[in-house]
Design brief:
about 270 residues, elongated, mainly alpha
């Protein structure tokens, strides 16, 4: 790929890329709607914002981990560090795939602009076909769904363990209270600081994955709308008489496809 990615890579603004700007100019000069392409690129920016937010959360969790006194000398601190590191790796992978997605969109703009120069304005009616990113988007969505499911299962296990831990602790305390003539305590405490600290990386990961998934859905819809919009505009430009004639042919075709009524005995002179 020889696309100039100086303004379309992970940290660049895709809208400022020369090929993206060129395609927008071509669309505007030929009276084509740019809303679909604009929406597609805007959703990329939305995905970038979620990735950036996740990176900020990871930095915050690392800082908070060093401030929770209850785990400073606890073996679980190492486990938490590994969990946060795994989240950091996952976010980095998404960021890399997002960079590839941006480059593919730039490539699509470049190819569309080149096709326009070779074949004329007719290629602009098939604009969606130049952006071969739908499979990548679906793969990214499937990946986020799996990640969210894993996060939910992990947090459920943590919550169950925490509740059992507090019940066990409550039982021991109640034995001591009964021994000194006090009433036992029935209330179960909410998850403590330790459980919240263990759950935090999974909650952050889930939030990130759900955010990315939402933006992916928007991008897929933008691609669908880009294709549908072109078809709708092409149909609207047809002369009214031509559209009426097409409608008549459509109705006639439906009538031909309908099952014919069975002939009755009376119709063929066999009435008894």
């Amino acid at each position: 790929m020889d696309v100039n990615t100086t303004t379309s890579g992970n940290g660049g603004n895709i809208m400022s890329n020369e090929y993206v700007q060129e395609l927008f100019s071509i669309l505007q000069d030929n009276g084509k709607d740019t809303a679909g392409l604009t929406a597609l690129i805007d959703h990329v920016k939305g995905m970038e914002d979620f990735v950036k937010n996740s990176e900020n959360q990871i930095a915050s969790m690392k800082s908070q981990l060093n401030e929770v006194k209850e785990i400073q000398d606890h073996p679980i601190k190492h486990s938490l560090q590994n969990t946060i590191k795994a989240l950091e790796t996952r976010v980095a992978e998404i960021k890399e795939r997002l960079g590839e997605l941006k480059n593919n969109i730039v490539e699509g703009c470049k190819n569309a602009a080149s096709a326009f120069k070779e074949a004329g304005a007719s290629v602009l009616n098939k604009l969606a076909s130049f952006f071969m990113v739908k499979d990548d988007l679906q793969a990214m969505k499937n990946s986020t769904i799996k990640s969210v499911d894993k996060c939910d299962k992990a947090m459920a296990k943590i919550e169950t363990f925490s509740n059992e831990y507090h019940k066990s602790g409550r039982a021991l305390k109640n034995m001591a209270r009964v021994a000194v003539g006090k009433q036992p305590i029935d209330a179960v405490k909410e998850s403590g600081k330790l459980a919240k600290a263990v759950s935090a990386p999974y909650k952050a990961k889930k939030a990130c994955m759900l955010g990315i998934q939402k933006q992916v859905d928007k991008m897929i819809n933008a691609l669908d709308n880009l294709e549908k919009g072109v078809e709708a505009r092409a149909a609207a430009k047809k002369p009214m008489l031509e559209r009426l004639e097409e409608k008549k042919l459509e109705i006639k075709q439906r009538e031909l496809e309908m099952p014919k009524p069975e002939r009755t005995a009376k119709a063929v002179g066999l009435e008894v």
